[in-house]
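Action item from last week, closing it out:
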Amino acid sequence: MYGEVLGIGPFRRELVPFLQQPDEWHRNTREGAIIVVPVFSAPEGSSRSRALAGCFGADPWDFNTHALDPWRADVDALQRFEQPGEEHRLECFLRLRDAGFSFYFQPNG
């Protein structure tokens, strides 16, 4: 399984530094346009994907739990989940959460 957490919400120019795409890709994105942002991913397999889901209190194969409550996320566990070089992902999540984005766990596999 390859699990990921997606954020969906309105684009705001001040969020650009926290998105994964280069700034110039959003040059023509209008304020308020709904965007989908991959926030966390676990391509390493099932164990890591289950750990990611657990950070949000979700069960990877219980689709009833895939709409995540970002305010119940275990931020300490998410910090431990991050790999070296991925420190921006937690900050991205926190900024998007504060901007009112919705978050979803998506299992693949």
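Closing note: The chain has a mean pLDDT of 93.
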